[in-house]
Amino acid sequence: MQGDDEQETAAGLQLLVAAGLQLAMPPRQLTDDRWMARAVPRMATARTDDGPGRSAV
To answer: Residue 41 and which of 1, 16, 19, 52 are 20 to 30 A apart at CA?
Structure first.
């Protein structure tokens, strides 16, 4: 998400998070007075076992 100021960038980021994405970088001011924030897809939880019928040995 890129915006003209911190408030615009935060508002856009809030829409992405509401759509199910996960915050990856809060709004930050970059060079040339630009603002950027990032959101990424949520990762599925990892399985802790080897699945049905499999041995951990």
So the answer is: 52
The pTM assigned to this predicted structure is: 0.68
Query: In this structure, how many other beta carbons lie within 10 angstroms of the beta carbon of residue 38?
Result: 16
Could you tell me the two tokens for 5? 């100021």
Task: Sheet with 21-29: list strands edge to edge.
Answer: 2-3, 35-41, 21-29
Summarised one tens digit per residue, pLDDT across range 7-22 is 999 999 999 999 999 9
Q: Quick check: 35 and 25 in contact, CB under 8 A? A: no
Overall size of the chain counted in residues:
57
Quote the tokens at residue 56: 């951990």
Residue 6 structure tokens: 């911190």
